[in-house]
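User: Thoeris protein ThsB TIR-like domain-containing protein. Structure?
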Amino acid sequence: MARNAFYSFHYVPDNWRASQVRNMGVVEGNRPVSDNDWEAVKRGGEAAIKKWIDGQLYGRSVVVVLIGANTAGRKWINYEIEKGWSDRKGVLGIHVHNLKDSGGDQSYKGNNPFNDFTLGSTKLSSIVKTYDPPFTTSTSVYKHINDNVADWIEQAIEIRGQY
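Assistant: Predicted structure:
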């Protein structure tokens, strides 16, 4: 079954890394937003941003949080996680710090953004799977994500169905 993914990520430092994952072609993803489009959405204020995110999430099967150095705790990423979960979508995280950016640089591993959420007394991070490719070279990290992301997505959807 073809899955449609919504990719959540910290734009400025991780957009290049995110585009690598989004362009793998393994799953269908949301259309990239240009800098100009995003600036126009932001000028509309919080209500406009929420409306845009909600529209982007509509019809998606899963929220894939691409975790960079500073992803955890960001307001709109938190909103995307919360909205995806409450809309009964699969949710998962993939650490992308070892993918190179446009300058050829890697980053450092960021915190798990799911640690900031609880279901009753259970941390969401104990339910939602987060994957950290076990490689340090960008090409190996890319291959690992490419080889596994479809299975990770199916597992996230299955896990969400249990809660």
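The first strand starts at residue 4 and ends at 8. The chain is about 45% helix and 15% strand.
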